[in-house]
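note to self: dont lose this again. the chain is below, predicted strucutre after it. 252 aa total, dont forget to put it in the shared folder this time
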Amino acid sequence: MDFEANTIISEQQKLMKKSLLLLISFFLFFTTDIILFIIFQKNYLFMFNLSRSESNMPNPFLTDIFATIFYTIILVAFLVYGAFLLIYLNKKYRTNHQLLKKVHGLADFFSIVPIFLFVVIIVNGFFITIGQVDGDSMYPTFHDNDAVAIVFNSDIQREDVLIIKLEEDFLIKRVVGLPGDELLIDTTGVYLNGVLIETYIPYNHISYDQVIPEGNYFLLGDNRTNSLDSRVVGLIAQDDILGEVIHNFSRK
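---
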């Protein structure tokens, strides 16, 4: 009888130690997640950006779906760990070996949540996100409401399709001119390094006859007759480029 009682006490002590480690690791990871969450609020394409709305974000609908799923999972995990913490701190309940073991198993299952969230935040904050095309300025390559994958790429090449922020607007355009290219825009068209690349010029186009300076790019929409691009707004600075579109989920 004494041996059986000692075994139960020993198992209870081990379970208490495991429970303490589980609680500490859970809240440490979530604290790290919260810090990263705050840091990435500056990223317009961050799916957990709290200031995201239809008027000031390029991907409100898609990211709302993902964010809602994650917020729900996080809420359930916190409820489980809240109950786990109360049981751990309450002597009346923690001496109930079966109850503590059952709740510990549930908490152990949800311990993956802050780790998974950490990975998602890192990937979404530093590397890749999703967006939604608004308008037909890139038709026929991209259509209105197309869902796209966007990478945060600083190595910009000619023909890359970029997401840029221009004042309060988010635009999707293609890179035509790179830093160092000779660019001429007049009433006859757009010339790049002496080659005519575009004859259609909007009525309110800019005039330009210089070498594109470092850190600036000349961008055009594929739908030339319906595109607010560098012919009107001028060169796009590196700081206004949010990412590169690498895949269109809406088109095969």
